Amino acid sequence: MTTYTWVGGGGSLDDPSNWSVGDVNPPPPPLPVPNDTAIFGSPVGTLIGSLDAEDVDFQSPTFVLQCQITAGDLTLESGKLILLAGTTINTATAEFIGASGDAGVEQYGGSNTLSDLVENVSAGSYLLTSGTLTIVGDGLEFVGAGEGDFSVSGGTVSITTGATGSNNSAGPVIVGDSGSGVFNQTNGQVTFGGNLIVGNGATGSGLVLLNG
User: Fold this and answer.
1) How confident is the model at residue 156 (pLDDT cuts 50, 70, 90)?
2) Which residues form the domain of 61?
3) What is the SS3 string spanning the chain?
């Protein structure tokens, strides 16, 4: 497995000149492949093209996507991830929002599909205004494992049964797992295949707001 670091500012994920692997011998392939790690530091502009890697790590501050990403798991350490129309993200396991600081995803179109969970580890938020967010399988969507806010003003959220699930059923949505969480829906469509749990555990607190 090779670690690739993005050095291209905005630009195409398919352009080898936008990636750096340091001094590696023998030289790896010019672009990340499915068992590699891709790290993004601080690009300027919009990311286009396609990427297929095992681990995709966005560190900070703001990333604008109009591309296709296939990953084993995806992490937004801090900062902001903006998904525009035409973006397609397929994550096999987990998406971590706010792994090391305040972080937020703003989805204005496209599709984001994952097989296990969205977890706001430190302080994370997710805003869906258009497009689709699909969680497949018996994984959990944690809104507020630290502090989390999930807002839906348009688009479609679907947590469905997946063939990979241990009991072939959708897991619960937990708003405030061990921290504080808010789920706010003003428009759009949200479908839960499992239970909705508000405030989980001794330290979890949650709030669900349904308006519109």
Assistant:
1) very high
2) 47-210
3) CCEEEECCCCEECCCHHHEECCCCCCCCCCCCCCCCEEEECCCCCEEECEEEEEEEEECCCEEEECCEEEEEEEEECCEEEEECCCCEEEECCEEEECCCCEEEEEEEEEEEEECCEEEECCEEEEEEEEEEEEEECCCCEEECCCEEEEEECCCEEEEECCCCCCCCCCCCEEECCCCEEEEEECCCEEEECCCEEECCCCCCEEEEEECC
